[in-house]
Design a protein that fits this description.
Elements: E1 3-4, H1 9-20, H2 36-45, H3 50-62, H4 69-73, H5 82-88, H6 92-105, E2 113-120, E3 125-134, E4 137-141, E5 149-150, E6 157-163, E7 167-170, H7 172-177, H8 182-187
Antiparallel strand pairs: 1-7, 2-3, 2-6, 3-4, 4-5, 6-7
């Protein structure tokens, strides 16, 4: 653990905007309601087994449109709230953010969920995924994979840093590859790389 997440202004800005957004149940089922389908998914998954929830959330979020940040927001790297992502599509961290908040709405503990920025060692690009702790397993929900996979089965991702809502962690691979530069990981842009 490295401390609180205030070192990540894009993350903090996204959280602040998310806390102001409205996702009320009055939207569910209404035609043209952006969050209606999301609300219905959450309602349908309540009380189901963990693996069913993870697979369904991964599948639903992965079905959203992939759009690079420059096309959406005119910025190289923009972290969208769930509502912004549902309205506009997004890139890898936006998929991971919506997955995280979907599971939180389903009652998952914040301590079980991490948005993880990784280096894809095959493609040589930065990428973001959601990692979920379930018992002794760490599972990856990835917009590039329709299946939820255990971390030990994914050899081409080297974790750089991870975030919960309030904390962040620097991973040992980041220390090795970035000369222990926290700022390099915190400010690294990965738009169009995921």
């Amino acid at each position: 653990p490295q401390g609180n997440a205030s070192d990540f202004p894009k993350w903090i800005s996204m959280l602040e905007h998310y806390n102001k957004e409205q996702f009320g149940p009055e939207c569910a089922g209404k035609k043209g309601c952006i969050t209606g389908e999301w609300n219905e998914l959450i309602d349908d998954l309540r009380g189901k087994k963990a693996d069913e929830q993870l697979q369904a959330v991964n599948r639903f979020v992965n079905s959203q449109s992939y759009v690079v940040d420059e096309a959406n927001y005119g910025e190289v790297d923009f972290w969208a709230t769930p509502l912004q992502f549902l309205e506009n599509g997004g890139d890898c961290e936006d998929y991971a953010i919506l997955k995280m908040f979907s599971l939180l709405k389903l009652g998952w503990s914040e301590s079980a969920l991490r948005l993880v920025v990784v280096q894809d060692t095959k493609l040589k690009v930065a990428h973001a995924v959601l990692v979920v702790s379930v018992g002794a397993d760490m599972l990856v929900l990835d917009n590039q994979n329709s299946k939820v996979e255990r971390t030990d089965l994914i050899a081409h991702y080297a974790p750089v840093y991870s975030l919960s809502q309030q904390q962040w962690w620097l991973h040992s691979s980041a220390v090795d590859t970035q000369s222990n530069s926290v700022a390099a990981g915190a400010n690294k842009s990965f738009a169009q790389n995921d």
